[in-house]
Structure formats: C-alpha cells, structure tokens
Design goal:
It is built from 7 helices and 7 strands. By secondary structure, it is α/β, with parallel strands linked by helices. A 7-stranded mixed beta sheet has the order 1-7-6-2-5-3-4, sandwiched between helices.
Length: 187
C-alpha cells in the first residue's frame, strides 16, 4: 500500500524514470548525484516505489534521532552512518552484501548537499569488495527525471574509474558540480 502511494505521488509530482534500470540485478550499489536538496529523500523514495525494488540507503547518524524519527528512517530502509568514527563501515556493508541473496544500497557520495571537488569513495570500495556493480543514478530536477546508467564494474583503479563516473554525470542536465569538472580535468 505504501509503495503504491509513494509511486503515485512520484508520478503526480511529474517525475519519471529514464535509462536502463537494472531489473535483473539483485545486488548493487546505487550511486545518486547530485545531492543538492533535502527533497532528494522524497524523490528517491518515490523512484524506489516506482521501480518496485527495495533499496536500502545510507544516511548520517544525526538523521536517525530522536526515537520516532529513527524508527521512521529505519522503516524506510535507512542505515545510519557515523562519519566521525574510524571503524571500517565499508566492510560492514560488504558483510551485508555477502550475507544476503538480495541487497541493494543507495549512497550519495558527495556526502553533503553542498558543492564538493572530491567524492567520498566508500561507495566505490563497497562495490569493489563485494564484487557488485555500481548503478549511476542522476536526479535531474529541471526535467523531473531520475536517470539510470548501465551497470558499472569498478576496476580497482579509482583514478581511472572516477573519470568514467564523471563522464556519465556530466551528460545529465543539472549535475554540473565541481567534482565532475575536477575529475574530468584529470583525464
């Protein structure tokens, strides 16, 4: 019932899905950019409902407080991330991939709604260590479009792969962020 409501609101708001959404993949890291507004959460929930696949997401631990909010965030598929601790969160997520037949996780590697010149690389190493593809997903607010790219298999060479990531996001309207230009200038 909730999925139907969320998908309906997504469509009523004028949003659409585009690109080759990987309906046959049971495991992947969904890399979403740009992370520009708090509205991203609602667009993402609507897109997830429209797709019909459950996708967990990572969020900063502060979003999971107080208790009623924590319950809601976890019920929506959230995993809190403590960005201040040095524990190996990447390995924790890799364990989730290894212990489930089906597991998809959404990550916003910009790490903030502000402009950045470097992405946080946790999403990359989660996919690499779990041996799952990364699905690029762009939110195009100008055209109300959630656009998906082909599955991308990380090679282990971050310097090479980050250029490919930037090339994809550079083609999507509304994603002209500093990190894209920075990575493309290194190519």
């Amino acid at each position: 019932m909730f999925r139907w409501i969320a998908a309906s609101l997504f469509r009523l708001a004028g949003w659409k899905l585009a690109g080759p959404y990987p309906t046959s993949l049971s495991k992947y890291v969904l890399m979403v950019a740009p992370h520009a507004t708090s509205k991203d959460f609602f667009v993402g929930v609507g897109a997830r409902a429209a797709i019909g696949h459950w996708i967990y997401y990572l969020g900063k631990k502060e979003l999971f407080k107080p208790a009623p909010v924590a319950w809601f965030m976890k019920a929506m598929g959230g995993y809190p991330v403590d960005r201040g601790k040095t524990k190996n969160f990447v390995d924790s997520v890799v364990d989730l991939f290894n212990n489930h037949q089906e597991f998809r996780i959404c990550v916003t590697p910009e790490g903030t709604r502000g402009d950045v010149t470097e992405l946080k690389t946790g999403f990359y190493y989660m996919a690499l260590k779990a041996q799952v593809p990364i699905i690029f997903c762009a939110f195009d607010y100008a055209r109300k479009l959630v656009y998906f790219g082909e599955p991308f298999r990380p090679t282990g060479n971050w310097n090479q792969d980050k250029v490919e990531i930037a090339r994809f996001f550079n083609t999507v309207q509304g994603t002209r962020k500093s990190w894209i230009q920075h990575y493309l200038s290194e190519a």
